């Protein structure tokens, strides 16, 4: 039924705003392992990102938030603490700095507690957490300061409005702030879930940075671990 609404519709790239009619887009198809049906994503000929499915991008934020809460009520990620800490260290952090773990996960991640025990002033934000706890909040409105660094692991591929999200990061980073986002989805990987709406292939990480007041400072790949470091300009 949703597909019937697509012919003739104009589809806009969520990184560079390139827009063309649905029928002109090169498409990649997959199936959601969480019951989300067929996933039709689009290859941008201008910035090279792959985005979609459009049916998920079109949903209201409140519905998506509920969808995540339902997912995490019965599904847990693997322990990603080691990769998160690896990404944090790519910021070249100092004990005097203030840092934010964006999308810090639930019970499967010990990043915030581990790094705080090492003496780092680090806080976490996790919108899918049931309640805010010690050093972790679930409401973005509770973030009221600026940070020396922001980092995430396996989060950037979930952004439905990456330009708006990066501009928000810019607003909560100090003038010389740095952020790092690691994800296997800088390549065409893990496309079997509707929750992954962005694949930053090709030059798209640089386009995203340039449009939002950042520049790419570094890129590291070790197997599936891919990390981009962005510096605020």
UniProtKB/TrEMBL annotation:
It comes from the Bacteria. GO terms for biological process: methylation. Transmembrane segments: none annotated. Keywords: Methyltransferase, Transferase. One of its GO terms (molecular function) is methyltransferase activity. The keyword Transferase applies. Gene3D superfamilies: Vaccinia Virus protein VP39. This is Methyltransferase. It comes from Blastopirellula marina.
């Amino acid at each position: 039924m949703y597909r019937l609404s697509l012919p003739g519709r104009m589809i806009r790239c969520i990184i560079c705003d390139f827009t063309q009619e649905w029928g002109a887009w090169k498409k990649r198809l997959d199936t959601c392992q969480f019951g989300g049906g067929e996933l039709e994503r689009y290859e941008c000929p201008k910035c090279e990102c792959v985005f979609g499915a459009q049916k998920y991008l079109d949903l209201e934020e409140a519905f998506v938030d509920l969808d995540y809460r339902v997912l995490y009520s019965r599904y847990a990620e693997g322990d990603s603490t080691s990769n998160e800490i690896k990404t944090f260290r790519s910021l070249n952090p100092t004990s005097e700095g203030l840092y934010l773990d964006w999308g810090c996960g639930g019970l499967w991640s010990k990043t915030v507690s581990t790094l705080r025990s090492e003496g780092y002033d680090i806080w976490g934000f996790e919108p899918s957490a049931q309640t805010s706890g010690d050093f972790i909040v679930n409401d973005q409105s509770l973030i009221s300061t600026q940070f020396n660094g922001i980092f995430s692991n396996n989060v950037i591929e979930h952004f439905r409005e990456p330009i708006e999200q990066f501009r928000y990061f810019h607003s909560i980073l100090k003038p010389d702030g740095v952020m790092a986002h690691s994800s296997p989805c800088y390549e065409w990987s893990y496309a079997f879930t509707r929750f992954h709406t962005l694949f930053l292939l090709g030059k798209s990480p640089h386009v995203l940075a340039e449009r939002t007041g950042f520049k790419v400072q570094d890129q590291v790949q070790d197997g599936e671990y891919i990390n981009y470091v962005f510096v605020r300009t």
